[in-house]
Amino acid sequence: MSTERLNDSAEGSSRSTTQKQQQAAPLSRYESQKRRDWNTFGQYLRNQAPPVSLPQCNCNHVLDFLRYLDQFGKTKVHLHGCVFFGQPDPPAPCTCPLRQAWGSLDALIGRLRAAYEEHGGSSETNPFGNGAIRVYLREVKECQSKARGIPYKKKKKKRNQIKAEEPAKPSKLQAA
C-alpha cells in the first residue's frame, strides 16, 4: 500500500470518527425540537391524500399544517360571541376552542424554515418564508390579542431605553 493511500485512508477514518463524534454528541434543545418538528411536518405531508413530496410542498401545505396543529393547542381563544371575549382573565370556563398560541406557531415556523434549508432547500423556494405565512401569523396574533384583551407590544431595544434615560444635550442649533 502506498503512503498516499495510507494518508487517504487515515484521513477518511478520522473524518468518519469526527462525524460519529458529532452524531454521538447530544443535540441542543433547539436542534432536538427542530428535528422533531421537521419529522412531524414530513409525516404530515406523507399522510396527505395523495402524499406530498417535499419538492411539491408549497405555502398552502404549510398553512394547512398550522391549522391542523390547532386541534392540539392549549390556548383558549374566545370567539366574538363569547361573554368573555376581550377579558384577559375570565372568571368562569366557556366552550371556546383551544388553539395553538401565536408564539408557538411563530417559533415553529422559524425552526422549520431553518430545517428546510439545512435539508437542501433554497431560501428562495422556502415555503416557510413565504409572505402568506407571515400574514397568517400576523392574523393569528391579532385575533388572539383581541380575544384575550391584551395587545401585543413590541419590546423596546435596550439602546433606546438607555438613550431615553440620559438627559437631552442641547444641539448646536439650539445653543446658537
UniProtKB/TrEMBL annotation:
Keyword set for this entry? Developmental protein, DNA-binding, Nucleus, Transcription, Transcription regulation
Region annotation Disordered: where it falls in the sequence: 1-33, 148-176
Q: Where in the cell is it found?
A: Nucleus
Read off the Pfam families from this record: ALOG_dom
Against InterPro entries, the record matches this protein to: ALOG, ALOG_dom
Signal keyword on record: no
Stated name of the protein: ALOG domain-containing protein
> Which organism is this entry from?
Fagus sylvatica
